[in-house]
């Protein structure tokens, strides 16, 4: 079953890697090469599956494997919840050496039974790991038996880490949603303005900056897949009128198959920065009207955009002159490789280059178009080269994840977290305000003038 699923995803026709290939070459892959043993930089397929599914906040997430697998993946992203907190509990079967020898299926069933009895979740997701895949535990069979006996959806997630990198694991998780979750229940009521967000994980509360905009426009978010999600909402996602793809690298297979099965059109957009937020709202409104929503939605959307853009400009007016002309080095990846460029350029800043790790070909084209001749795309930028650029003053600030913050500190250059480990929401209009205020605060912090001053014994 795993081999069939893997080949099916390698052949994904909507993947940016595959679009220009002939059918024979397409089979070589959208999924990427398997990880080198011992090298899990950037995350493995199991980690990617957890990233997609764990934000379903009222479900239980059980990792069938050694305790280290759960320990390494738990709490790796700040996907927040507005209600249920069961997703924050780390469930694992904690396999031992004896379990590896004799098999862990009985232990798995016992763990599922205990979770259902103690917590009564709407569903239990069971994650296969490298160890349980190699010893041959039939997770799908155990989950099917548990579903029948316990009268609760128990869903196998067949995404052992060795099958590929994190981005491939996100697609495997998407297949799980399509096979076991989406379309299994019907909503009590539908409206002409129902939408889904795909690949939105409510990192640091990003989603909560966007949902108020939808409410003001009369747009109903049927399901976010899967930020701050509830299991029963995801089951009914097939009745939406439009899907917005927030991160195409993650769930492109879900968007395409939902269009094939239920006729839901989709587009890729972003809520990072004023221009992209406004563009996404306009696209959603137009697509909903095309599918039967009242045409007045277009006028309401334009009025909302005008008010919000004016408000953002007014709030940021005191700091925009200080940001104008400042240079940033953006080292993130994926959809942020281009969407954050738009936010920075709107403030008058210059991006000297951006990382396009984990980015699709479409992401790279967008980034290249935004940068023009003034910036560079890096698949990888060694820390030594990054340090040299910062030390030479080529950039005034580094925007990246926590792993490269020390490069900036060593170069005595301001740094701000732009990755999933951050604690501040940057999506939407309010997120743009927080994003640019954070940059201004970092750039104007007096500590930088102090650390750059030579010590007295060197004067």
Automatic annotation (TrEMBL):
Gene label: nifE
Pathway: Cofactor biosynthesis; Fe-Mo cofactor biosynthesis
Entry annotated with the keyword Ubl conjugation: no
Nucleotide-binding among keywords: no
Domain Nitrogenase/oxidoreductase component span(s) in chain numbering: 44-443
Family: Belongs to the NifD/NifK/NifE/NifN family.
Alphabetically ordered keywords of this record: Nitrogen fixation
The protein's role, per its UniProt record: This protein may play a role in the biosynthesis of the prosthetic group of nitrogenase (FeMo cofactor).
Name of the featured protein: Nitrogenase iron-molybdenum cofactor biosynthesis protein NifE
NCBIfam families referenced in this protein's UniProt entry, alphabetically: nifE
């Amino acid at each position: 079953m795993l081999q069939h699923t893997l080949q099916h995803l390698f052949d994904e026709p909507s993947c940016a890697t595959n679009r220009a290939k002939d059918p024979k070459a397409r089979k070589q892959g959208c999924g990427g090469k398997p990880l080198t043993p011992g090298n899990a930089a950037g995350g493995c397929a199991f980690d990617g599956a957890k990233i997609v599914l764990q934000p379903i906040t009222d479900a239980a997430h059980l990792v069938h494997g050694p305790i280290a697998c759960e320990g390494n993946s738990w709490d790796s992203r700040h996907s927040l919840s507005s209600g249920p907190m069961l997703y924050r509990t780390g469930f694992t079967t904690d396999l031992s050496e004896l379990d590896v020898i004799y098999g862990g299926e009985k232990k798995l069933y016992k763990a599922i039974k205990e979770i259902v009895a103690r917590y009564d979740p709407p569903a239990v997701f069971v994650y296969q790991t490298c160890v349980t895949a190699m010893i041959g535990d039939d997770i799908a069979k155990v989950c099917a038996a548990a579903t029948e006996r316990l009268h609760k959806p128990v869903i196998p997630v067949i995404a052992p880490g060795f099958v590929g990198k994190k981005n491939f694991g996100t697609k495997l998780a998407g297949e799980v949603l399509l096979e076991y979750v989406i379309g299994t229940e019907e909503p009590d009521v539908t409206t002409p303005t129902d939408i889904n967000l795909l690949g939105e994980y409510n990192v640091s509360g990003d989603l909560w900056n966007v949902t108020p905009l939808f409410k003001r426009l009369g747009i109903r978010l049927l399901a976010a897949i899967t930020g701050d999600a509830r299991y029963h909402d995801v089951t009914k996602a097939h009745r939406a009128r439009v899907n917005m793809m927030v991160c195409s690298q993650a769930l492109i297979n879900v968007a395409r198959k939902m269009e094939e099965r239920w006729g839901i059109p989709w587009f890729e957009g972003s809520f990072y920065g004023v221009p992209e937020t406004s563009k996404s709202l306009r696209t959603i409104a137009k697509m909903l009207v095309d599918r039967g929503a009242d045409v007045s939605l277009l006028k309401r959307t334009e009025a909302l955009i005008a008010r919000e853009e004016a408000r953002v400009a007014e709030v940021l007016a005191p700091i925009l002159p200080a940001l104008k002309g400042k240079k940033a080095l953006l080292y993130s990846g994926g959809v942020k490789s281009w969407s954050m460029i738009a936010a920075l350029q709107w403030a008058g800043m210059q991006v000297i280059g951006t990382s396009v790790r984990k980015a699709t070909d479409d992401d790279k084209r967008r980034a290249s178009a935004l940068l023009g001749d003034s910036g560079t795309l890096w698949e990888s930028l060694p820390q030594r080269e990054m340090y040299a650029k910062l030390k030479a003053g080529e950039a005034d600030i580094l925007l990246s994840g926590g792993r490269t913050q020390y490069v900036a500190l060593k170069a005595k250059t301001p740094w701000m977290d732009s990755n999933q480990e951050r604690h501040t929401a940057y999506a939407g209009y309010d997120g743009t305000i927080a994003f640019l205020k954070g940059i201004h605060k970092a750039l104007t912090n007096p500590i930088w003038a102090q650390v750059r001053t030579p010590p007295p014994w060197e004067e």
